[in-house]
Fold this protein.
Amino acid sequence: MDTECTNLLSFLSGELGEKEKKAFTEHLMQCSECTREYEQMTEAWNSLKWDFEEIEPSSSLKSEVMNFVFETDDEAPVRREKNWSRSFFKQFTPVTSGLVLAALALAFVLLYSNIQLKKELAAVDLPMEVKTSLSLKPADMTAVKMNTDGAAYILQQGEERRLIVQIQNLPSLQESEVYQVWLLKDGKRTNAGTFKPDEAGTGSLTYKLSIKDKFNHIGITREPDANSTKPRGEKIVGSS
């Protein structure tokens, strides 16, 4: 979403400065989505003056307002909400009430989208740091594929951590076989996912680490399928 698109409500309510208003006007000429929403909201707003039904205020209006302000018993909030909702719908015809409620709902959706967009942009601006790197070597140094090796990295962006595993020259797999990554600490293993290498024997895996994921070693085994809850096959590579 273009950041200019989030200024539609501010433009309609007159909250933008001259510079921002000019920039949004130029944006409006190029953005079909904003143009469509602008025309719909403008049409709804303009129709209010034709659909509004004026009524004379009742003689008891002042006392009702004062009672609303000073009412303090436990049931007051509920009664006030019901009274004001009835008063609201008396002031407007059903068509106008529907337009107003639709405009409020649209404003809420746009506000929520704007907040989410700001969070996403803030996350993108955070630097990516390499917190840890581990070298991965063959488990059996006498094996034919002695040139199988790789590395694992822990990347951190804000509060988010990810494990990246990259390995070259892996032996090819048969049918349902997979390579499975295990995180090891104090003799306990955590399953970090499975992967299959490409034709050149290169494989990679990305795993989102939780706060509970703590480890000091990585092991990668060759498993008969992706259903292993503990190692069933041979260890191919691991960290020292």
